[in-house]
Amino acid sequence: xxxxxxxxxxxxxxxxxxxxxxxxxxxxxxxxxxxxxxxxxxxxxxxxxxxxxxxxxxxxxxxxxxxxxxxxxxxxxxxxxxxxxxxxxxxxxxxxxxxxxxxxxxxxxxxxxxxxxxxxxxxxxxxxxxxxxxxxxxxxxxxxxxxxxxxxxxxxxxxxxxxxxxxxxxxxxxxxxxxxxxxxxxxxxxxxxxxxxxxxxxxxxxxxxxxxxxxxxxxxxxxxxxxxxxxxxxxxxxxxxxxxxxxxxxxxxxxxxxxxxxxxxxxxxxxxxxxxxxxxxxxxxxxxxxxxxxxxxxxxxxxxxxxxxxxxxxxxxxxxxxxxxxx
Length: 327
Fold this sequence. Notes:
Elements: E1 3-4, H1 17-27, E2 35-40, E3 46-52, E4 58-63, H2 73-84, E5 88-93, H3 113-126, E6 131-137, H4 139-150, E7 159-165, H5 171-178, H6 184-204, H7 212-217, H8 221-233, H9 238-245, E8 258-261, H10 276-280, E9 285-288, H11 309-321
Parallel strand pairs: 1-9, 4-5, 4-6, 6-7, 7-8, 8-9
Antiparallel strand pairs: 2-3, 3-5
């Protein structure tokens, strides 16, 4: 039953998925003042959390996408909007993404929910909040959905629900989409930082035998996963990683009100990333699939004042489906 009809209707040229995707990245800038807290981890590393506080008893945990950070435009705009309706926010910078390299060889990947669990437990036990909501974007959305399904029987009672935006829930088929010519520009943008980080890790950890020739020739995410994700995190192959990291098998296990928004024109997503059946068979997992929006875009027009559809949609789901009081 929980499949929402979407009313997102942008103006031209925002009905082009690529234009919508790139416009938010290139032109939507929202500075946000954060209070950073660095927390030590169980494995002798650290995680940087960036708080934006308005004195609320309710907290929203935001998780960014591949090679993003708390400074990503979708993170800052969401933080500012949620602050405006009376919610504190905290941006979870995945390991190696805060501006300071983490201490270990391992950073993050699409299914590394142990870090999410660690941060959630830290916030639940160390910070004085009554309610916590998790919102993830792209890779961070996959972590959000996988975590909520994985931990459905053990999750903190303070966690009231989740929202995920533009998520490749079936990584195996989504990677095949990413390999297509239509996504070549995005891959090149990701590789600018990813390849540099791998070279830095190889320099810091000589025992990590990085094949630099293969790194320089890499043209697909699979190539970097073969060089780094598979050996460092103990997967058998990229295909093994895709299968184990995907959130789709966990959607039916979610027991907190959770919304996924995936646009039909998102060039990163395959047909398997549109879980209508899973939502129809669930009481707690909701799905919405606008015709337009691109990948973490959802920009309406060239007028900045009109470009709050995504933030407004997040707010509306919280008001209507999650037990958290807003202003």
